[in-house]
């Protein structure tokens, strides 16, 4: 069973979910992303639902949304805090033709999320390689890209109307929400719509024009460039100065020894 309540077009009437597939599709204007939308009240993880839908041959651009997740996950097996009714918990199924590298898709999606938040909430967002969206030094959103055969499942979690004191103690200092930053709630429907528009824009750009301008934008918004970082990669910690993201989407750091190291996958912590 996928979730405890399937919120179809009638969700607004039943009151189970704050938004319905139809309310999101209404004047959305995208061609591919969001042509099929499934909204659930509670699921284990929207990534798992997406995986089932891939097996059932769901179309590229299918979106899965949930009001809460029991086992929401982030990169490297971390949990994603998924309380009911306060965030955006989304997975998008994609069948990329040209760019299927997880890194590159993470980077493009982080930009889509950063722009959507900027447009709807008016907040200044930065991106932390490869998948985080940062506001005022704290993480407001994350992206998890998983493969499923030829499909990519792009998971997006945004802390929207989460009260600062509701975050678990372990992440209370490092995490933020749009509510925490703005001091007022943000319309999740408006943000979901803008998010889907931005996701379509950045994938279209990747497929049509390649990675160059996406990387340029990512570098301009980079939270880590020029900072001292520790990167956990392939079971080891590397410490040095984050120099840039190279043309393949890898993070380049200058180790304290002076040697430049390319990191293809890893988790970055900013030291100062
Ligand atoms: C990260 O920052 O490590 C990535 C977080 C991704 C969280 C989202 S929430 C929707 C989707 N379903 C999941 O279980 N995870 C992603």
Walk me through what this model shows:
- The chain is of the alpha+beta class.
- Helices cover 28% and strands 29% of the residues.
- It has helices at 11-14, 21-25, 46-55, 102-121, 178-182, 188-209, 212-220; strands at 6-7, 37-43, 63-69, 87-94, 126-128, 132-135, 138-148, 151-159, 228-233, 236-245, 251-255, 260-263, 267-270.
- Strand 5 and strand 6 form a beta hairpin.
- The longest helix has 22 residues, at 188-209.
- Mean pLDDT is 92; it is low at 8-15.
- The structure holds biotin.
- Biotin binds next to helix 3, strand 4, strand 7 and strand 8.
Provide tags for this entry:
272 residues; alpha+beta; 8-stranded mixed β-sheet; 5-stranded antiparallel β-sheet; 13 strands; binds biotin
- How many β-strands, per DSSP? 13
Report the average pLDDT across residues.
Answer: 92
Shape: globular
- The helix-strand sequence is EHHEHEEHEEEEHHHEEEEE
> End-to-end span in angstroms?
46 Å
Which ligands does the model contain, each kind named once? biotin
Instruction: Profile the largest sheet.
Output: 8 strands, mixed
Rg calculated over all Cα atoms:
18 Å
Task: Enumerate the strands of the largest sheet in spatial order, edge to edge or round the barrel.
Answer: 1-2-3-4-8-7-6-5
Unreliable spans: 8-15
Helical amount among residues, as a percent range?
A: 25-40%
Number of helices: 7
Q: Which class do the helix and strand fractions yield?
A: alpha+beta
Work out the strand percent: 25-35%
């Amino acid at each position: 069973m996928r979730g405890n309540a399937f919120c179809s077009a009638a969700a607004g009437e039943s009151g189970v979910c704050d938004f319905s597939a139809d309310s999101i599709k209404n004047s959305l204007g995208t061609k591919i992303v969001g042509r099929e939308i499934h909204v659930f009240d509670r699921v284990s993880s929207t990534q798992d639902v997406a995986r089932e839908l891939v097996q059932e041959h769901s179309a590229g651009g299918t979106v899965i949304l949930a009001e809460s997740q029991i086992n929401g996950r982030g990169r490297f097996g971390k949990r994603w805090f998924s309380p009911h009714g306060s965030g955006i918990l989304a997975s998008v199924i994609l069948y990329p033709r040209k760019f299927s590298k997880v890194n590159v898709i993470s980077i493009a999606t982080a930009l889509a999320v950063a722009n959507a938040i900027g447009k709807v909430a008016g907040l200044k967002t930065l991106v932390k390689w490869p998948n985080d969206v940062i506001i005022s030094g704290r993480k407001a959103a994350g992206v998890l890209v998983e493969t499923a055969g030829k499909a990519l499942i792009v998971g997006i979690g945004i802390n929207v109307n989460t009260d600062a004191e509701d975050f678990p103690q372990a992440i209370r200092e490092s995490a933020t929400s749009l509510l925490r930053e703005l001091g007022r709630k943000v319309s999740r429907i408006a943000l979901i719509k803008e998010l889907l528009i931005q996701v379509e824009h950045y994938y279209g750009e990747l497929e049509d024009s390649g990675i160059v301008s996406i990387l340029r934008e990512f570098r301009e918004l980079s939270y880590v460039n020029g900072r001292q970082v520790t990167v956990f990669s392939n079971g080891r910690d590397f410490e040095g100065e984050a120099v840039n993201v190279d043309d393949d989407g890898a993070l380049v750091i200058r180790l304290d020894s002076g040697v430049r190291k390319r990191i293809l996958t890893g988790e970055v912590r900013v030291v100062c």
